[in-house]
């Protein structure tokens, strides 16, 4: 056998061996991300006394639906909170993407006067902020958004870091010749933006859209600040309140004795309920990942590495 063929076969063998090791590494890495989710699901179906005695187990030693029965008894309130979170997440993500794109695209155009000053303005907000009290006063006293669903949307609309990512994507990915050709053909700036720029920017839009979806869905702090009505809070804040109430009842002896005098029996699944709430809260956000996965890696690398 000629030396060149032997060398080629050795190279192919080494390549397949290295690819096999790489596949094994990523399989193990994927399992390390998946195992905590499996543990959460397993604990949510475990008996509370068994958890206290033996700790967390992937496979429940004693299956119990007590945590889910507790959530089922509050199904109407959970459904309302679900509706609020879904509305805030969908509307907030779409509006945020539109505003970020409208701000980032002009910053990417060299012909825009004072574009560096506008970029500096948005960048400074990443470093300095007015603090919680002025923020609260603006939304409550000036905008009058107390107990309004828009109080859960507006504060997260324009994220400076996402503006910088999208501006970098526009600068490094979309050629100036495309915009110049469209301008020569008589297209307006609005038409260029909606017909050319946005369709070419699906990777970065999907990437930032995923981040925005996570931010809106996982937010509970805005509900704590601005919402006092029980039918206006988000799902995450409802879970936060429920867990605090359960922890208070299970750890406070005075509260336990008062409930015992009233004939109430305290048998709250504290640990399993935490996991059941995590399962209930993670469902919709897991379903959102397949819609962003196609463009996520490409948009993240193009928008953040170049430039």
UniProtKB/TrEMBL annotation:
Instruction: Write the record's keywords in alphabetical order, separated by commas.
Output: Cell membrane, Membrane, Transmembrane, Transmembrane helix, Transport
Subcellular location field: Cell membrane
Q: How does it sit in the membrane?
A: Multi-pass membrane protein
Q: Which InterPro entries match?
A: MetI-like (IPR000515), MetI-like_sf (IPR035906)
Query: What is any one of the record's Gene Ontology cellular component terms?
Result: plasma membrane
User: ABC transmembrane type-1 domain: which residues?
Assistant: 82-277
- State which residue ranges cross the membrane: 21-45, 81-106, 118-137, 149-170, 196-217, 272-292
Q: Which family does it belong to?
A: Belongs to the binding-protein-dependent transport system permease family.
Protein name (database record): Carbohydrate ABC transporter permease
Source organism per UniProt:
Paenibacillus psychroresistens
Q: What is the lineage of its organism?
A: Bacteria, Bacillati, Bacillota, Bacilli, Bacillales
């Amino acid at each position: 056998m000629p030396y060149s063929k032997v060398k080629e076969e050795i190279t192919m063998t080494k390549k397949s061996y290295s690819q096999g090791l790489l596949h094994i590494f990523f399989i193990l890495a994927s399992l390390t991300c998946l195992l905590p989710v499996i543990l959460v699901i397993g604990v949510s179906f475990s008996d509370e006394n068994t958890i206290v005695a033996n700790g967390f187990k992937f496979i429940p030693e004693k299956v119990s639906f007590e945590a889910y029965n507790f959530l089922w008894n509050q199904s109407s309130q959970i459904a309302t909170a679900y509706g609020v979170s879904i509305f805030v997440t969908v509307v907030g993500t779409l509006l945020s993407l539109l505003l970020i794109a409208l701000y980032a695209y002009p910053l990417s155009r060299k012909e825009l006067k004072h574009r560096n000053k506008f970029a500096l303005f948005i960048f400074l907000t990443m470093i300095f902020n007015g603090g919680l009290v002025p923020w609260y006063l603006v939304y409550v006293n000036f905008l009058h958004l107390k107990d309004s669903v828009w109080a859960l949307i507006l504060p997260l609309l324009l994220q400076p870091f996402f503006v910088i990512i999208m501006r970098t994507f526009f600068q490094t990915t979309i050629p100036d010749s495309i915009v110049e050709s469209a301008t020569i053909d008589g297209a307006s700036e609005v038409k260029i933006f909606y017909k050319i720029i946005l369709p070419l920017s699906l990777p970065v839009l999907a990437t930032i859209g995923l981040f925005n979806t996570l931010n809106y869905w996982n937010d509970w702090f805005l509900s704590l600040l601005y919402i006092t009505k029980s039918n206006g809070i988000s799902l995450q804040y409802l879970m936060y309140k429920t867990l605090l109430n359960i922890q208070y009842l299970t750890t406070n002896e005075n509260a336990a004795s008062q409930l015992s005098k009233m004939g109430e029996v305290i048998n709250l699944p504290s640990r399993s309920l935490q996991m059941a709430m995590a399962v209930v809260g993670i469902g919709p956000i897991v379903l959102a990942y397949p819609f962003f996965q196609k463009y996520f890696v490409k948009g993240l690398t193009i928008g953040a590495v170049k430039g």
